[in-house]
Design brief:
By secondary structure, the chain is mainly alpha-helical. It has 16 helices and two strands. It has a single domain (4-319), classed as Farnesyl Diphosphate Synthase, CATH 1.10.600. It starts with a helix and ends with a helix. It is an enzyme of class 2 (transferase).
Length: 322
Amino acid sequence: MSIERIRSLIAPDMGRVDTVIREKLHSEVVLIRQVSEYIINSGGKRLRPALVILSAGAFGYTGQYHYNLAAIVEFIHTATLLHDDVVDASELRRSKATANALFGNAASVLVGDFLYSRAFQMMVEVDNMRVMRVLADATNTIAEGEVLQLLNVRDPDVDEENYLRVIRYKTAKLFEAATRLGAILGNASPAEEEAMAVYGMHLGTAFQLTDDMLDYSGDYQETGKNLGDDLAEGKPTLPLIYAMKTGSGAQAQIIRSAIERGGEGGFQPVLEVIQQTGALDYARQRAQAESETASNMISSLPDSDYKQCLLDLSTFAVARNH
């Protein structure tokens, strides 16, 4: 599964989105322009804005507002990346230095704030209370997810339910908002809108589950991050949670100690336990289940190239290696 076929369908639309992004990034403050342009141009799949375009297209929307909404979603996402990298003390993202590594933590936090506030300025321009409520609620939920994840750091007693709650809040909520926004613009029925939103939520969960697997099985050239970065930050992700739950007492202790110490005991012993307990296979099965649920939610939509791309994204969420 390649994402290129999906990109080719919406390339003209995404070009319009990029134009909006560049226009709205403008600030008289030079540092804001520098940091914003650096992070926006640092690669990435642009999945969340693409979901706005695809979901709007699936309901036959022919207006212009989806370009602004797609840009708003990307600004919110970018702001969370800037703040995340500061909180996690990250120095590498997508094989490039993080903004905080180049410009400092203070600049990254403040430019993240600028992007949030610019996103809300753009919401007002759309002049649709439903849209504003979806985006405001999503932004608040994402912030709650960030705090929940912070509370979970170096806590080996986090269970699968709490881990999934963080994913739903921190990552999947913006996917859900993106697909709901497209449905709103396309005048979808309440049932169709809800189905599209649930699709987005499960799709976002599948993507994050796959990301967490790749932290123990990916290739640096593909993922742009080093193996074990999550462990080094003391994040109890699903492979670790499952390995602790199903492994022997000794194996569970290796994982527990690694989480508590932020991986100080070494990555290789943890990786061996993960492999011995089949933790990656379990995480992959959970991601696949999320992907299938997402696809089932939109199966009754009228057939179109946009619907097929949304279905393809569900497959890509699990099959990808980056």
